[in-house]
Design a protein that fits this description.
- The chain has a single domain, classed as Metallo-dependent phosphatases (Purple Acid Phosphatase, chain A, domain 2).
- The protein contains 6 helices and 17 strands.
- The termini are far apart.
Length: about 325
Amino acid sequence: MAKRQFQALLILTALISLNLVSSGQTATPQTQTKRSSDNLYSPSPVTSASDPVLVGAGDIASCDALAGAEATARLIDKIPGTVFAAGDLAYPDGSAEDFANCYGPTWGRFKDRTRPAPGNHEYHSGGASVYSSYFGTAAGDPKKAYYSYELGAWHVIALNSECAEVGGCDASSPQVQWLKQDLAQHSTVCTLAYFHKPLFSSGAKHGNGPDMKAFWQTLYAAGVDVVLNGHDHDYERFAPQDPEGHADMLRGIREFVVGTGGKNTHRTFADPKANSEARQADTYGVLKLTLHASSYDWEFVPEAGKTFKDSGTGTCH
C-alpha cells in the first residue's frame, strides 16, 4: 500500500511540473528599465514599501493667475510623501495676503508635509518673516532659513540662496560653514540638497547663478548626489557634473531645475548649457523622487493634458 501511494505521488508531481512548463509559468528574468540619461538598460532597483517619496517644485502660486498652482496641486493630491517647495512660493511679494489667498488654497493643503526653502520673492516682505511665520519650525531658524533632515536612508539639506540676507554664500560665510559641519556629521550613503537659485541653468531669464559656486564646491567635496532648484520657470535636467560644469559620472552631482510649480510665465531657453540632458518650458508639473537605500528614481509628472515626461534612475556615490 505504501509503495503504491509513493508511486502515485511521483506521477502527480510529474504532471504538475509538465503543466507549469506548458502554461509558461517559469522563472522570469529580472525586470529591466531604461535610463533616459544614457540610453542604457540596468536592473530595476529593489523597491521597499518604506522607500520615501520627495515631490515638489519651485515658483508656485501667482496671485494674478492661479491656474498653474491649482494644476500642480492636483498632481500632489495623488502623490503621498514629503513635499519640497523650492522658493518663490507666493507671488508677487510673499506677503501674508499672498500666502493666505494664493499659496494657501493650492499648495497650502500640503503644509503639514512640506519642507520649504525660500526664494527671492519671500524676501519682499520683511526679510521673509511672513514665510517663516507661515511654515514655523518646518522652515528652520527664521533668521537663517537653512536646515537639514532625514528622509528614509537619505540626508536632505534645504539651503537659502538669498545670500545677502544671511551673511553671504561664499566659502567663509556662516551658511557654508554650517553646511560643511552638517555634511561631516551626516555621512550617509545618499544626500540631496535643494535651494532656489541654480548654479547651472539654460534659462534665458536667469541662467547660471555663480553665487551658488561655494554651495556646490562643498556639496561636491562631500559626495552629494542630487541638487534641486527653481528660479527659472522651466524644467531642466543635467547629467552629473562637478562645480566647474565638467561631466563627472563618478562623483558628479545631478541637478534638476524645477521652476514649474505654477508661476504664470513660462520662459524660453538660451543656448543649452553643457551637460543639459532634458528641457521643457511650456508645461507645469512636479518632480517626484523615490529614494531607495542606495539609488533614486526621478519622474517629472506633467499637468493634466500635457505630454512631456522625463524619468530615470540614478545610483548614489
